[in-house]
Backbone:
């Protein structure tokens, strides 16, 4: 990777202030899709910038966005893909997206015959517009969300998954995004639709080897869960250490629909992750799980919304951060309960474990409850390893380092165990161990 | 006869502080292999401090005195070294450690003590045997360390660890607290069974009440008061305490000081 910038890049204006049409390589897309882009750009220009948080947070690491190039679109080394894919065990189907553009999807015929659609979103625009139109830009509308608008104006490619009525797939669908060039602006966008009674497990894996220059990954994931459908989602950010990642996930749930979303932030130098769930209909239920594992100067921001709009809706959230060195995590979560959402239950707990003096965490848990017959609770805790717990373990013969490792693993395990898919639980655990192993030179066998 | 043996633990004139505050003010106590001692005393006398100091809790500073464990200088050892050398403390308030499974915890604990691998098969066998001894159900080990355990379960779990580790010295810190009479009986029977199977084990029972001593019979009883052992004797001392309370001893102690 050369650091030198082409004259084009030097002259190119910031993509936030001027529309950079060179970011798009797309061949012809339907007119309505192009219209959406220009409309989205309008929205982006007109929507106000969000107000800064009323608290002194650590500064976001700098990324010179004006120097970013259009995504290159080259395929990634296939060995990287196959190794990564195999690390997830048995999969129902998989798709791989390279540098936001090139896509490969492998979908077994028997699943396709049952009506499962799994392809690139670009392709779906042309072939499955009937299934896309009700959801694209409706779940996370550009008219109301500035970053979603930016994404809709620039998105290059992404996945489309459609699980038809009553189709239940136990093994995961695997959606991998990767990159093998630096200094790119990757705008990706995916849509997952589960029809009534459908069930699926999906892994959205963002992974790459480190590059010499920072890239921006800007990803939007819209999810529509129809009545009584159930999605178990793993969203794993494991980019190289230079990447600035922004992810926006929004799920809309129908009656008795269920979502479990497990957000993991392991990689990147900066990750802003917004996860929102709209409990639109009666009896819908969502569980957000989160693990941030940070070292070096990694900086994570988690923004969450549990939005209760109907009676008997239920949501919970458990986020844990483990921070070493000078890593930083900020959790900002809101539970909103509409006046109509009586008999709803909601909870939110975020905890951060600081393993060094320079690691830091901030948390702002918010409740906005407008119904009077509800149960809700929240809590946030930030601290270092408990010396009493450590003493207890050491009194049983574990040396200090092993005791600490046990405590950290236990802290992560608490979140992991809530994920209701035994296989994926194991695979995620394996990825976590690998990640920790690669991070620390010496780590004793506990 | 005893004097020719190396004591399991020998505490000589031990002084310890929390911050600037002296808690132990010259404790002397020797336990030989196979002996059962009870250390009694009113609240705040320093009983639990002594147990934590002996296990090496970092919050206490030793200001004077020596402790030898099987002839080794105990005060130079870290808590994990003490544990591996054969010292065991059953905690009054065992810590809850979420996310750590009891089975893995116990197996790794045993590995650390033995300084080598313990195969799953071998471990399962010894575990089953010890759990039977303590009247525990097998599901127990699938849970997380002390998470959601009742008071009785926590204490039984402590004794299960003792049974697995086969320590040379077991310090039982208020193991009777928070137990109803049935649970107390089960736990004490467990302790007796472990002691019977491991006759060289010295036991130091720390308790406020006499009731635990109905089930485990100590040969020696010591009364700790304001950081010092003020009286030692046989089991009749416990009965005396039961009849007259700590007040009498307190008065004797104060009178002695006044003279």
Residues:
């Amino acid at each position: 990777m050369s650091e030198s910038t082409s004259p084009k890049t030097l002259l190119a204006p910031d993509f936030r202030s001027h529309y950079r049409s060179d970011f798009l390589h797309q061949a012809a897309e339907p007119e309505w899709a192009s219209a959406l882009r220009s409309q989205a750009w309008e929205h982006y220009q007109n929507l106000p910038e969000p107000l800064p948080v009323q608290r002194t947070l650590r500064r976001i690491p700098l990324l010179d966005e004006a120097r970013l190039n259009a995504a290159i679109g080259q395929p990634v080394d296939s060995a990287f893909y196959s190794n990564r894919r195999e690390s997830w065990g048995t999969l129902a189907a998989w798709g791989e997206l390279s540098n936001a553009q090139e896509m490969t999807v492998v979908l077994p015929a028997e699943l396709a015959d049952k009506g499962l659609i799994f392809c690139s979103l670009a392709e779906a625009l042309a072939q499955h517009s009937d299934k896309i139109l009700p959801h694209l830009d409706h779940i996370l509308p550009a008219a109301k969300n500035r970053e979603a608008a930016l994404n809709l104006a620039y998105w290059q490619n992404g996945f489309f998954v459609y699980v038809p009525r009553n189709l239940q797939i136990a093994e995961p669908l695997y959606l991998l995004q990767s990159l093998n060039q630096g200094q790119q602006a990757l705008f990706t966008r995916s849509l997952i639709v589960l029809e009534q009674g459908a069930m699926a497990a999906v892994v959205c894996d963002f992974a790459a080897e480190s590059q010499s220059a920072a890239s921006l990954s800007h990803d939007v994931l819209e999810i529509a869960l129809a009545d009584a459908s159930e999605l178990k989602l793993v969203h794993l950010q494991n980019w190289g250490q230079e990447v600035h990642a922004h992810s926006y996930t929004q799920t809309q749930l129908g009656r008795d629909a269920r979502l479990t979303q497990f957000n993991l932030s392991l990689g990147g130098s900066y990750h802003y992750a917004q996860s929102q769930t709209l409990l639109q209909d009666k009896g819908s239920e969502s569980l957000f799980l989160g693990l941030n594992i940070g070292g070096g100067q990694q900086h994570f921001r988690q923004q969450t919304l549990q939005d209760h709009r109907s009676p008997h809706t239920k949501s919970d959230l458990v986020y844990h951060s483990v921070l070493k060195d000078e890593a930083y995590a900020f959790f900002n979560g809101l539970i909103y309960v509409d006046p109509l959402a009586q008999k709803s239950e909601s909870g939110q707990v975020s905890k951060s474990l600081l393993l060094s003096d320079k690691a830091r965490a901030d948390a702002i848990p918010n409740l906005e409850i407008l119904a009077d017959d509800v149960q809700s609770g929240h809590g946030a805790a930030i601290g270092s390893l408990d010396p009493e717990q450590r003493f207890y373990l050491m009194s049983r013969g574990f040396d200090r380092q092993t005791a600490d490792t046990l405590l950290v693993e236990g802290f992560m395990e608490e979140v992991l165990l809530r994920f209701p898919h035994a296989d994926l639980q194991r695979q995620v655990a394996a990825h976590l161990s690998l990640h920790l192993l690669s991070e620390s030179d010496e780590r004793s066998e506990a | 006869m005893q004097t020719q043996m190396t004591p399991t633990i020998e505490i000589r004139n031990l002084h310890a502080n929390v911050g600037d505050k002296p808690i132990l003010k010259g404790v002397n106590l020797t336990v030989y292999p196979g002996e059962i001692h009870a250390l009694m005393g009113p609240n705040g006398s320093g009983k639990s401090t002594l147990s934590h100091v002996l296990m090496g809790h970092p919050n206490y500073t030793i200001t004077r005195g020596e402790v030898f464990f099987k002839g080794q200088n105990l005060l130079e050892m870290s808590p994990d070294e003490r544990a591996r050398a054969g010292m065991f403390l059953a905690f009054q308030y065992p810590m809850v450690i979420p996310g750590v499974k009891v089975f893995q915890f116990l197996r790794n604990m045993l590995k650390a003590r033995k300084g080598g691998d313990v195969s799953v098969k071998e471990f399962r066998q010894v575990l089953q045997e010890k759990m039977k001894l303590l009247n525990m159900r097998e599901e127990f080990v699938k849970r997380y360390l002390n998470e959601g355990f009742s008071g009785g379960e926590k204490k039984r779990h402590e004794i299960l660890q003792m049974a697995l580790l086969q320590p040379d010295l077991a310090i039982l810190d208020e193991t009777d607290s928070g137990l109803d009479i049935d649970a107390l009986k089960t736990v004490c029977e467990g302790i007796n069974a472990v002691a019977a199977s491991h006759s060289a084990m010295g036991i130091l029972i720390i308790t406020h009440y006499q009731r635990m001593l109905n089930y485990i019979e100590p040969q020696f009883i010591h009364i700790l008061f304001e950081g010092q052992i003020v009286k030692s004797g046989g089991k009749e001392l416990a009965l005396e305490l039961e009849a007259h309370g700590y007040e009498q001893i307190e008065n004797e102690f104060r009178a002695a000081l006044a003279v």
